[in-house]
Write a structure and sequence with these properties.
Elements (H helix, E strand, L loop, with lengths): L1 H34 L5 E9 L5 E9 L8 E7 L10 H8 L4 E5 L31 H7 L6 E11 L1 H30 L4 H13 L8 E5 L6 E2 L13 E2 L8 E9 L3 H5 L11 H7 L9 E4 L10 H9 L1 H4 L3 E10 L2 H4 L1 H15 L13 H26 L3 H4 L14 H16 L1 H10 L4 E2 L4 E2 L13 H29 L15 H29 L3 E3 L2 E3 L4 H29 L6 H30 L13 H7 L6 H28 L3 H16 L7
Helix pairs in contact: 1-12, 1-17, 2-12, 3-4, 4-5, 12-17, 12-21, 14-19, 15-16, 15-19, 16-18, 17-22, 18-19, 18-21, 18-22, 19-21, 21-22
């Protein structure tokens, strides 16, 4: 009987592994079917060289109804800062199944798109060196001209956050270049002796025949109208008195979609409460003077009273915008945060409807509220969770091999045995002490890690990227890991020498005491398990074209640049997760507590303090419209304001916290599973370091 139980127990990990791999394959296949609308949409990966020499990567969604004989309208999708093109998948799925050709673009430094080589410039942007704020969106527009199944008179652009800023710059470049052709042709026609009317007609034909692709419709989500300082055309020091909206004279129909609880409202619109964004001066600039516009209102550019148009009138006005030079505007709000725009059904339906109005004469082939992307998102989540479980399941399965089985030891006693009220109180005090540093220092250390060289946006407050550590958000996370690691190590040593050692506990109780050869075997086992499952991630992506991603949570295939960065950041992640593995298993774990209780305690200690801070921060946001912790500590001081000129919001650090609150408790439980099986912290520390690093780095922006 005992032998049967032992054999069954040894097979559990293999069974779990098989189930996880099966789920990865199935969710990829089902996700592919949803992504392609059951095969009626084909997808195609494309690369092209941009106007400033970068290599941009994009994914095309091509409906079967789009042909050379019946060309379809097209929409370019541009993601936000801590994302890549897969984040735009819900919009891509819904637009393509409605007959739009969709190009989802990796912005410069994101996904598989490179940064431009040094020394680039754009004449229409003042010829400033190393400045290309469109991030590849202009060249993506022009790339559409290569496809005969696209109607180039019906092109739209949709962006989120950074992507919204970029598409406005791309549209501006297109119209500026078109205007340059027009002006040159007009001057030539007048010089040749033509009258003004004939010269204007000839210039218009020349510009239209230049091949420059122009957008006619734009959806701006999670970002303001790009209002520049009229004095130097930068975004610095923009006020209601010195602003200019470069696209004001372009016949582009534009709508804004803003979450009611957008964390960036203060930085972007200049209003603390996002629900009031239409009262901002930037909104007035982008609409020609309108203010306090109710959600869902269509109106004409330049109408300060924002006289509502019916949907039919909006269709008529948008269709004639190129002739009247009076495009339409629309403003929407929805019940969500900044990042919710990616995955909010209402926000997505607003964008679909606006494109139907402005690109398809008001015709909706499918009701905008009828959406199927949720199934693809569910597949992404199930596939992601299966991937995470597979890493550990493969490691435990390989532990049964004679070569790796030698690393297994009896698990030592933890420092913590709780008995009686005083014992419970002492444990609780220590538990809370270890919870406190992370929430108290998180916003200080993470800062506002936004660094995009082509946009000239360099907001990182603590650890600027450099040629070696070249990813701004990862630098902030590395700084956080380093400082937390030093604090945790100091606290652990105090507990060890002042309390535990006096009770007879020694190095063997830390889970670190293991022969060097066995430590190296643990590292090899972690590496093999990580590489084995990650190879399946690559295979699933190659076969299905889908990723294991959901919301801000991703484990994706990486290009060479990301792999190089992975190994640069890896030493810090290894040290940190080995240390927290020691804390989880030799201090947080209670000897006389049930296993399920220990798993819960370890999961909570990994992120409990951050979770409480997050609950307060976002609880205040949903209750009042304003974050509980609105600005990074230290950036509101008089000295900081005099030196920098602005306080940095906690918005970006808050968004990064979403991912940490997801992955930290999962890897904490993984650490416990591995330690319980092997009797040491080495396997769990190595494996969780690999997993957490790839989870954070695979979709992250390369800043330099």
């Amino acid at each position: 009987m005992d032998l049967t139980k032992t054999n069954l127990k040894s097979r559990v990990s293999a069974i779990v592994l098989a189930v996880c791999l099966l789920l990865m394959a199935v969710t990829s296949a089902v996700g592919r079917s949803i992504q392609t609308s059951g095969g009626s949409v084909r997808t195609q990966e494309v690369e092209f060289t941009t106007d400033v020499g970068a290599v941009s990567h994009a994914k095309l969604y091509i409906p079967s109804t789009a042909t050379a004989d019946a060309p379809a309208p097209a929409v370019i999708l541009c993601h936000g800062y801590t994302a890549s093109l897969d984040a735009m998948e819900p919009n891509a799925i819904e637009l393509s199944r409605r007959g739009y050709v969709v190009m989802a673009l990796d912005m410069y430094g994101h996904g598989a798109s490179t940064l431009p080589p040094a020394g680039y410039s754009q004449a229409e942007m003042g010829g400033i060196t190393d400045y290309a704020p469109d991030l590849g969106s202009y060249s993506a527009l022009q790339e559409l001209a290569k496809y005969d199944f696209i109607d180039l008179t019906k092109v739209g652009m949709l962006g989120h956050s950074m992507g919204t800023a970029a598409i406005q710059e791309g549209a501006y470049l297109a119209y500026a270049k078109w205007q340059n052709v027009y002006n040159a042709a007009l001057a030539k026609a007048l010089e040749d002796g033509g009258d003004e009317t004939a010269a204007a007609g000839a210039a218009y034909l020349a510009a239209m025949g230049s091949g420059i692709v122009l957008p006619g419709s734009m959806v701006l989500t999670g970002y303001n109208y790009n209002v520049r300082n009229v004095n130097d055309l930068t975004y610095n020091g923009v006020t209601a008195d010195n602003g200019v909206f470069p696209l004001f004279a372009a016949p582009v129909n534009i709508c804004t979609i803003q979450g009611d609880y957008d964390e960036f409202a203060g930085l972007l619109w200049g209003v603390d409460d996002s629900r009031e964004y239409t009262s901002s001066f930037k909104f007035a600039y982008g609409t020609g003077g309108a203010s306090n516009v109710p959600s869902g209102t269509y109106f004409l550019y330049g109408d300060p009273s924002a006289t509502p148009l019916s949907r039919e009138d909006a269709v008529t006005a948008s269709a004639s915008a190129a002739l009247t030079l009076t495009p339409i505007r629309a403003a929407y709000g929805f019940d969500g945060t900044h990042s919710d725009t990616y995955y909010d059904q209402t926000a997505i339906s607003y964008g679909i409807d606006f494109f139907d109005i402005t690109l398809r004469g008001g015709q909706a082939s499918i009701d905008p509220a009828d959406q199927v992307w949720h199934g693809r998102a569910a597949c992404g989540l199930i596939g992601l969770m299966s991937t995470l479980a597979a890493f550990v399941a493969l490691a435990l399965t390989l532990l049964e091999l004679p070569f790796f089985s030698t690393i297994v030891r009896p698990e030592p006693q933890s420092m913590s045995t709780v008995s009686g009220g005083s014992g419970a109180l002492k444990y609780a005090v220590l538990y809370v002490i270890f919870l406190l540093p992370a929430p108290l220092l998180y916003y200080w250390l993470i800062g506002y890690p936004y660094y995009m060289q082509p946009q000239w946006f360099k907001f990182l407050t603590k650890f600027m990227p450099n040629a070696f550590f070249n990813m701004a958000p990862m630098n902030s996370l590395m700084l956080f890991n380093c400082v937390m690691g030093v604090i945790f190590l100091a606290l652990y040593l105090l507990v060890f020498f002042l309390i535990a050692k006096k009770s007879g506990f020694g190095l063997e109780n830390t889970g670190l005491k293991l022969p060097v050869v066995q430590v190296l075997k643990s590292l090899l086992l972690a590496a093999v398990s990580f590489a084995g499952v990650y190879a399946v991630v690559y295979a699933c992506s190659a076969l299905s074209g889908t990723q294991f991603s959901f919301f801000k949570f991703n484990i994706m295939p990486m290009d060479a640049v990301h792999w190089v960065a992975f190994f640069k950041y890896l030493p810090v992640w290894l040290l940190f997760f080995l240390l927290v593995g020691v804390i989880y298993n030799s201090l947080t774990r209670i000897n006389n507590a049930p296993a399920c209780v220990n798993y819960l305690l370890i999961a909570l200690v990994s992120c409990g303090g951050l979770a409480v801070m997050f609950a307060y921060d976002y609880g205040r946001l949903f209750a009042t419209g304003v974050r509980g912790i609105q600005y990074i500590p230290g950036t509101t001081s008089a000295q900081w304001l005099s030196a920098v000129g602005m306080s940095f919001p906690t918005a970006l650090a808050g968004i990064m916290l979403f991912s940490l609150l997801f992955i930290l408790p999962i890897t904490a439980v993984m650490s416990r599973v591995c330690a319980k099986k092997t009797g040491s912290v080495w396997l769990g520390g190595f494996l969780t370091a690999f997993i957490t690093l790839v989870f954070t780095i695979s979709h992250m922006v390369v800043s330099m």
